[in-house]
Model the fold of this input.
Amino acid sequence: MQDYYNDDAAICYGCGRNNPKGLHIKTYWDGEFGICRFSPREEHTAFPGAIYGGLLASLIDCHSIGTAIAAMYDREGRTPDTAPEITCVTGNLNVTYLKPTPTNQELVLKAHILQLTERKAIVQCSIYASELETVRGEVVAVRIQSRLTHAGHK
Done:
């Protein structure tokens, strides 16, 4: 999904492809779930063997927004490469840390839509280390009209 974001909007630390120091997460939509894979780096450590909670919240936030945008395109019967661009921001983010998330393995984020309207999506997202769910979040994604949606579509 994030590869379709307008260049002006692609600077987000979590998912912006144009942020050289960012996390560069990518959401892949299969029509039901948003899937993301992320490999933590050493600088993401909170304490030996565990990832910093703020990073985990960022992953849930950005991946949930990407999932919401993908679902909104689906709802409109369009693909992400069509205008007008759909842009969402975070209206609410709730994160529950279930277990420490290890630093030494790839993480899988799996998100699905709980509620979808024209202007809002409620997304539930979980982070898995191997098969173990370590973090669960819920995001309210709010669709906006901003200068970014009119700055030119990729």
User: Anything to note?
Assistant: DSSP finds two helices and eight strands in the chain. Residues 149-154 have pLDDT under 50 and may be disordered. The first strand starts at residue 28 and ends at 29. The chain has one domain: 2-150.
